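Memo to structure team: turn this sequence into structure tokens by end of day. - J.P.
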Amino acid sequence: MKCIKIRPLDSVAVATENLSPGETVSVEGVSVTLKDAIPAGHKFAVRQIKRGEDIIKYAYPIGRAKADIGIGEYVHTNNTESNLSGTKEYTYNPDFTEIKPVLPLTFMGYRRPDGKVGVRNEIWIIPTVGCVNSVVCEIEKQAQKYKTGNIDGIYSYNHPYGCSQLGGDMENTLKFLAGLIKHPNAAGVLVVGLGCENGNIGELKRVLGVYDESRVKFLVAQESKDEIAEGAAIVKKLAEKADLIKREECPVSKLVIGLKCGGSDGFSGITANPLLGSLSDRIIAMGGSAILTEVPEMFGAETILMNRCRTEELFGKTVDLINNFKEYFMRYGEKVNENPSPGNKAGGITTLEDKSLGCITKGGTAPVEDVLNYGEEVKSKGLSLLQAPGNDLVAANALAASGAQIIMFTTGRGTPFGCPVPTVKVSSNTALFEKKPGWIDYNAGALLEEKTMSELTDGLLDFILKLASGAVKAKAEYFDRHELAVFKDGVTL
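Reply from structure team:
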């Protein structure tokens, strides 16, 4: 199979290997002679496309032709432009199917007093402000002697925010930190503040609300004679308590997975992202939850998600999610279609619509049950949409702050990064899987090699349950994971 036409209505096909000019390929039984070289993951026309006409992929427009395009010609940034513009009005046309429930499988997790379940039993040391990053790092270093076999790790985190921020920008930072503090993968949390910052511990507690005082401790560095020694002593007590917690059998209904893609290529929307959609549907069928984010990478595909909203109220929230994010772009004088990245384009993604239509397949077919603001905790079973940008680090951290115990991350070009929770990398192509075995956990490229979606979903689900049970780790868990990324939107004083 040298090429794929994804949907019958499509006017383009995607090369599955490098193709040469003059080569003839079969597209749904019809021979097409190529006029140009077509790199793997890139597109060529399977019918005549007139200038100004929509180019169809995934059965939806991915932009329009800037010039006439003949059969067999290369279709990319040279002859394609986006249709996207500013905010729009939308009409609710419900179009969703229920996910048929199945009996849940189980995993061995850590039950928390608030009813949540963690897949790791860790101690987290979180700064309120970048001024104390060195302090939390040193506390982590000195506290390693308190780690036991039943504690998966003692980690400090760094970020440059928490002071000199105003209004909603400061609130974003506080909501994000509060979400991490409540995360079930942390058996205990030490929050370290400086004392004079805008986002001081008092302000953080206002956003945090009710919390377990035996699990969350606070330290103000300016008020301590020796903040390092005092912090390490607090971690020792948290570790003694965490060491008593054992894994227990838990249903998959307690799982929340975050859905993310980055370094995407022309295969991402064909293999890896649909595989995550299949996994998401499977987990939701067992009563679990999934969170889809990257709002700018919904642009051009947003009506599909809007019509999957269970209620008209949720439809309205999704309209606001999309239009508000477009207004965020325009507020800074940016175009809403300033995407995909150079790496995406090199991998075969031409326009933002092209990227978005492949991106949203990570959300499977389940109805949309909720729309979350940045830093808001997941509340509903099923699929939720989350306000966050497409940036890999910011979006993955946002998913963690909203309660995802595991991040599922697809990539066509590869990336080593991880966030505070296990970050599973799924490759869109076999070449990447073989080239970067130290980065990639699972290969969705096998879908192009006669493996079925059902087989790969079974295998990925089995891997996730083993990871949630602590039997295996994601490759990213072996890399440095000390940097937090906060969604910043405002003035720095």
